[in-house]
Amino acid sequence: MTAQVVTITSGKGGVGKTTAVANLAVALASGGSKVVCIDGDIGLRNLDVILGLENRIVYDIVDVIEGRCRLKQAMIRDKKLPELYLIPAAQTRDKNAVSPSDMNRLIKDLRTDYDFVLIDSPAGIERGFRNAIAAADRVLVVTNPEVSAVRDADRVIGILEAEEKGPAALIINRLNPVLVKNHDMLSADDVLDLLAVELIGIVPEDENVIIGSNRGAPVAFDPKSRAGQAFRNIARRLKGETVPFLDLDSHGSLWERIQRLAGRK
Amino acid sequence: MGFFQNLFGKKNSANNAKERLQLVLIHDRTDLTPAELDSLKDDLIATISRHVEIDAQSMQIGVEHDGRSQRLVADIPIKSASRRRSSKVRK
Hints:
The structure holds two protein chains of two kinds.
Chain A: E1 4-9, H1 17-30, E2 35-39, H2 47-51, H3 61-65, H4 71-74, E3 76-77, E4 84-87, H5 100-111, E5 116-120, H6 127-134, E6 138-143, H7 147-162, E7 169-175, H8 177-181, H9 188-195, E8 198-204, H10 207-215, H11 226-238, H12 254-261
Parallel strand pairs in A: 1-5, 1-6, 2-4, 2-5, 6-7, 7-8
Antiparallel strand pairs in A: 3-4
Chain B: H1 2-7, H2 13-30, H3 34-49, E1 60-66, E2 69-75, H4 81-84
Antiparallel strand pairs in B: 1-2
């Protein structure tokens, strides 16, 4: 077995990197893959709470790197999915406690036993980001259809190209189909036009994401959530399947539904 | 709501975002500000004018993008040689 090492990054903070990592991990592990996710945001860890594993942390990634525990001791097994593990970030250290070569060494040990290693990158383009992409086979860039997020995504995509970690694939997160329809939000096509990269997923804005994070149960567990469906589709694309993109207009406004019922559309 | 927003010209903020981003991304990717582009244009006019008489007023210079690669595109009209009655013939 040789794991696919996938780093999720964004440039801008708050666009949904951690949510994406948690959901892709859940979706992949639910589909039978053996998955390890690594929180690369040292000093500001969050993947543990999003996955609902915050009470189980004993050791973290810096403990492994500095030799205070074995790799297996820092891997927390998920409550529901026995093939899903988390390596948490250290909370009381800073990004300089880890180097890109530390990451390469650590991930080399994981490659043989798992199908996927997902790395949650911190925001920004400094040390933490460099650590997160060091061992990546593939990088997914998360953005929102919004000017600052798209601009920062473009910077990151450029850096990834320069570092020969490209081509990056894009996740457009938190797209609001009603705003897009009213021409008050960049559409997925607009964003792709601007960034000129491969698209791997469009995730609609969905209140279930917040409800899931409140509970520590990512939406990918929820068969009815649209965002959950979008993340499950991205997981399948990561495995090499061809999955059509969700039709985000299928609900439409009340007026459009009436028109459809009346056979006018 | 949508109707009134359209009436007061507030609609289509997405287009606004896209147009602004197009310009910002060109500058981010090329590290070329509009002021630097202007000074490049002046240098080009000076250099080319030493070889051929050009119509500097209608010269256009800009950055276009093709996928993720940028290209500097200049449209430089040359003043007709016959009108200048130049002794040398140039292409």
